[in-house]
Design goal:
Helices cover 35% and strands 25% of the residues. By secondary structure, the chain is an alpha+beta fold. It has one domain (3-204): Beta-Lactamase. The strands form three sheets. A five-stranded antiparallel sheet has the order 4-3-7-6-5, with helices on both faces. The protein has a two-stranded antiparallel ribbon with strand order 1-9. It has a two-stranded parallel sheet with strand order 2-8. The chain starts with a strand and ends with a strand.
């Protein structure tokens, strides 16, 4: 059974830093967005990747909650943006979902995973939550997704997500390494920024 860390129990949020959610016009949003853009660029540059990387997003636990998600960033590729506009959706997902606290089964599943574990979705066979807006499918025709928990102090604090048009399974090893490097490595700019600058909330699966 999941529990809040002692710091969450006693103080509600981590000492120091900005509470989550933060404003979209803040430096925190810019730093998260820059990390997501770097993840998208690295995945897109994988040699021989035949599927199209559509977007990369980040959700973080709302301060003091342990597992209530907040959309903190969403970066789309140029190809995805062109597809979205062509399909008649003028507003990017970040304009629609930023600060959204919708809890999904996928988010909770990611939080519960052990280190380095990727959660995969194939939308032809997997079903999104009935309450999901399904922006990836509606805006871009998204077919596959790869998600990994963002981890600090051996606890999950959010998720890093990458969406694709076409099955990326042939390059999963490289995709998973990139997600790990950004979501769980102690050298990750994203991990260290969350740890040093934000009131992150820890979700622990330890008894």
């Amino acid at each position: 059974m999941a529990k809040l860390s002692k710091r969450d129990k006693s103080k509600g949020i981590q000492v120091g830093g900005r509470p989550i959610p933060f404003a979209r016009d803040s430096s925190h949003f810019v730093h998260v967005e820059n990390s997501l853009a770097a993840v998208l660029h690295e995945i897109k540059a994988i040699p021989g990747l035949r599927s199209t990387i559509l977007w990369v997003s980040c959700r973080l636990n709302r301060s003091g909650t342990g597992n209530i998600p907040v959309f903190a960033g969403w970066v789309e590729s140029i190809e995805a943006r062109n597809t979205r506009i062509r399909r008649g959706f003028p507003y990017a997902p970040i304009q629609i979902r930023f600060g959204d606290t919708h809890t999904s089964a996928l988010y909770l599943e990611c939080l519960k995973q052990p280190p380095r574990q990727v959660v995969r979705r194939t939308w032809k066979t997997d079903k999104a939550d009935s309450t999901s807006q399904r922006l990836g499918e509606n805006f871009y025709g998204e077919t596959h997704r790869r998600s990994m928990a963002i981890r600090i102090n051996n606890c999950s604090v959010g998720t890093l997500n990458a969406a694709f048009l076409g099955n990326p399974a042939a390059k999963d090893t490289k995709i998973e390494k990139i997600l790990f490097d950004w979501a769980q490595s102690s050298k990750s700019d994203l991990v260290n920024y969350i740890k040093d600058k934000l009131h992150y909330s820890e979700y622990s699966t330890k008894p």
